[in-house]
């Protein structure tokens, strides 16, 4: 049997077409990739670009394009992803230019440095727990309002403190707290921040504390003793459970041994706790416990309180 060379010839032509088409596509992709890699503009003008804590690589890429730093909304995403650099990108404020190529932009967002940084204060943190290059004055305890702050690198601790204090003043301005009652209210709010979670519970506990204060009854708040204990020891982790010996610590912050509020706040309370301190819920309660069921249980008498302990803590 004699085989015709035509099918083989046709197959060779088809393969050549496929190879040629593949080569053209590859060159086109290289050209497009290179074009996207190039700066979006020739104009050298540094502008601010802020990366928020928790921003995803996609979010950053989209905002870079929206601000005309890149030629395509996914260009930076693909570039950083292929280089496995997404985890190296820092939160903060940066100075970049549309004349920067993708490599230069990535370098600025990872290594070359932010001109400012994020400082986060969490409700209930004491000053020692705030992760920062600053050592804040202990007298600011309670007044470092929980929030996320974009702090310029050139700021001193006084500059940062002033920024945070201004935010504190703005956030509490609508509560109309008299200046002569501010210290007392913030101290009470700091206790509520550590003692209760929900808005309702914070307000009820605020009422209970006020009831105890009126009759000269010791507040017996564990968080205040934890604060007193940790002032001396500065442990690796604060707010650990108390021991019986801890309750004997001689300190003005020990509300088991002393009546009245502690002399100063024990942490930095959030707006919800400050609101509760100024808007307590009136009641006849004098006692409360945190049950193992995750619920707070209240009592008017010691007998009822002991029943709650037997029922919800044992």
From TrEMBL:
Keywords assigned by UniProt, alphabetized: Cell membrane, Cell wall biogenesis/degradation, Lyase, Membrane, Transmembrane, Transmembrane helix
Subcellular location: Cell membrane
Cited Gene3D superfamilies: Classic Zinc Finger (3.30.160.60), Endolytic murein transglycosylase (3.30.1490.480)
Record has GTP-binding as a keyword: no
InterPro entries in the cross-refs: MLTG-like
Topology of the protein relative to the lipid bilayer: Single-pass membrane protein
Source species, domain of life: Bacteria
Role summary: Functions as a peptidoglycan terminase that cleaves nascent peptidoglycan strands endolytically to terminate their elongation.
Name of this protein: Endolytic murein transglycosylase
Top-level taxonomy: Bacteria, Candidatus Shapironibacteriota
Gene: mltG
